[in-house]
């Protein structure tokens, strides 16, 4: 799969979570360059303001939303605010996620397990719950969520993260099935190894210069956000540049 060279998202409204750094920041900036108004969600006000400066520099605009995604009532308030201002939402990119500890399952604390599930799974369900009416009000709602190969590989010591990403895959595929006959398209993106803080924490001995960057991935996410995109319920696998269909059984 190759990216469209001239994707236009002029006049479209896009929410990006985890927008202050890494994949989220690169995606927010790429969406802004394509013409979208970006609603940038992250916990860190200072980093959001730096993103806002970058978005303004490319001639676009943003709304900054400092928000902890475990504040689920705040997600509902955000949905209400989007409805009040725009009456619709064209794009949501659910990117925010946490790794948790790499440790045997028997050593994972209940607190760590809950934190990973709260951010990687429940927060994304709350986004869907809050934004579904807004996406349905768009002529081409696009729901895009960042998954991981860990959902399928299930390597030792990656338990909470792998389980949470497998649950996210099921969540988004279910939403895709429920909206198949609407203008909404729901997709998953597997970034693979990228030069991010999370990757550095997971693989501290790895040379980051051998990895591609979030900026390399971002144009592909922009294409999934385009009104012309037609696939739903599939995974865009960045390492192979392919669309994958998850295995299904009766």
TrEMBL record:
SMART domains: PKS_KR. One of its GO terms (molecular function) is oxidoreductase activity. The keyword Oxidoreductase applies. GO terms for cellular component: membrane. Keywords: Oxidoreductase. The keyword Oxidoreductase applies. Transmembrane segments: none annotated. Residues 12-197 form the Ketoreductase domain. It comes from the Bacteria. SUPFAM superfamilies: NAD(P)-binding Rossmann-fold domains (SSF51735). PANTHER family: DEHYDROGENASE/REDUCTASE SDR FAMILY MEMBER 7B, SHORT CHAIN DEHYDROGENASE. Belongs to the short-chain dehydrogenases/reductases (SDR) family. This is NAD(P)-dependent dehydrogenase, short-chain alcohol dehydrogenase family.
